[in-house]
Protein: ATP-binding cassette sub-family B member 10, mitochondrial
Organism: Chiloscyllium punctatum
Amino acid sequence: AGNGFQWSRLPRCCSGLAAGGAEPGGGHHGNRAPAQGLQPQKQRPDTARETERSRAPTTGAFVEDARRLLTLAYPERWPLSAAVGFLGVSSLVTMSAPFFLGKVIDTIYMNPVGENVTGSLTSLCAILSGVFICGAAANAARVYLMQISGQQIVRRLRTRLYSSVLCQEIGFFDKTSTGELINRLSSDTDLLGRSVTENLSDGLRAVGQAAAGVGMMFYVSPQLALFVLGIVPPVGVLAVFYGRYMRKLGRVTQDSLADATQTGLTGNLIVLSVLYKGGLMMGDAYMTVGELTSFMMYAFWVGISIGGLSSFYSALMKGLGAGGRLWELYERKPEMALNVGMILQPDQFKGAIEFRRVTFAYPTRPEIPVFSELDLSIPAGSVVAVVGPSGSGKSTLMSLLLRLYDPVSGTVAVDGHDVRSLNPFWLRKNMGAVNQEPVLFSCSIAENIAYGTTHPFQLTMEDIEKAAKIANAYEFIRNFPKGFQTVVGEKGILLSGGQKQRVAIARALLKNPKILLLDEATSALDAENEYLVQEALDRLMEGRTVLIIAHRLSTIQNADAVAVLDQGRIVEYGTHQELLANSDGLFRKLVEKQTILQNSQKHMLKV
Ligand SMILES: Nc1ncnc2c1ncn2[C@@H]1O[C@H](COP(=O)(O)OP(=O)(O)OP(=O)(O)O)[C@@H](O)[C@H]1O
């Protein structure tokens, strides 16, 4: 770490897709099998919980969701408790305001004519101003604490969710779109975070204020309070019928207008009735003007609080809805455990590969088999080129070998061991992959080269430079003003195709895998770049078992054996010469097609 890299910035992709995609040091799963001989494989996790979640929501599920929410908020219990305390103070001040404002009005009205009210009015208003300022300060403290706690909860939630996403099997990403995952991570976490903080405190405040408001209405005038409570239900019923009638009259799009009219009508009727009854009571000297004002203000607060409760309810439901989607991802166990299973000792690990009667279909298309009873053997240390028409499954062979997917039947074996029994983390650590579009990350070239090695902390700048030299990448990297510290942009966008490939080759060289998977998908490299990449690849291939998706005749000619893939099986297998000798064979036809293509290109160039 002393050479200036920011290791913490290296992406920790659990799936290990890139040439060096394995996570150094066992990652955060921590259940890495000890490196001694064969280790037993653990049971595959069940997905029962997932099925359970997809059922219709029940009271049990609701309670369970609420429990999860509370667990999430638990680490923030102290700031949240303080916020609830401040909430109590500010609500108390808010709810005492109408009472004291009523007193101020009575002080003004009730003083006998000619008496100086300045003294008592000034002190009352000064005290009240002080109390209101304290209430506002308590409210500010509540908002601050709620915001901070909410952000902490969202951060924690996002971190957990993100690592859960990284640990899923590849099939999961075939089914789930990136946009959906980003939505889960950004807006759903935000909704949920807010529902346990802001919405909950708003809800608490609404309940508290409604209860206090009703209580104070009774305190100020029990008679008027009883009268109001007596007329609210019938007026409410009236409003519902009126609203329905409006809806029938209007189109569906005018629903909100009908609702608004209904609310306005209900409120106005209630205010009118309070003024009527209160006015009569004042006339009979049962009530002062200040008391009637206080009463009206409390009635308003009760109305506002009940309105707040309904928006709190809808916000809470939104939060719970977002939670339902989040927990599913949060608790999803990958169908393929990442870091359990056998690890082969160096003396047992030779790198022989065998596909035995493999039948496979992608999980998203189970009805379309890619392979049916496919057999292929690749002896340790040999180079086997796979050729075949587009879509015949050449890349799929590699995916099965990396155990990104499991076959439906048959086995994929490394040194005689079914890859399902091997530790995927270990397996991927010992496989390198270089393809036309290498996976580069938006960090420095040095970090990209070092990514995926077993002990990145022990690497020196010399190691990285040496790998870059062998990969024919050193020269172009040195020519950048920042050299190895050049940041390559998202997916390495600031590098050319050939440069990206050479960085990927340097990365694979450092990783030093026993098995190499090459996909030389027809790339649009110019002659010089192609030569440099080919030379680097030749160096990389030395002394390894290589499975190569071949497009160039030169590669096919140099391979120890060529396997021709068609219709889900290996239809021809042998050396280049042997296959070429079969005039009816598919290989011969593929080569002829390519030769024709090359001739036509030559012809076009001459013209
Ligand atoms: N993730 C996936 N989910 C579903 N089907 C897939 C997936 N990846 C590939 N396929 C399908 O599987 C078949 C084999 O694809 P594959 O990419 O292995 O072929 P290929 O021989 O490498 O093709 P090419 O030479 O064009 O790259 C194709 O029909 C393809 O549409």
User: Anything to note?
Assistant: Residues 1-56 have pLDDT under 50 and may be disordered. Residues 118-166 form the longest helix (49 residues). The CA atoms of residues 34 and 261 lie 71 Å apart. The pocket of adenosine-5'-triphosphate is lined by residues 174, 362, 364-365, 370, 388, 390-396 (CB under 6 Å).
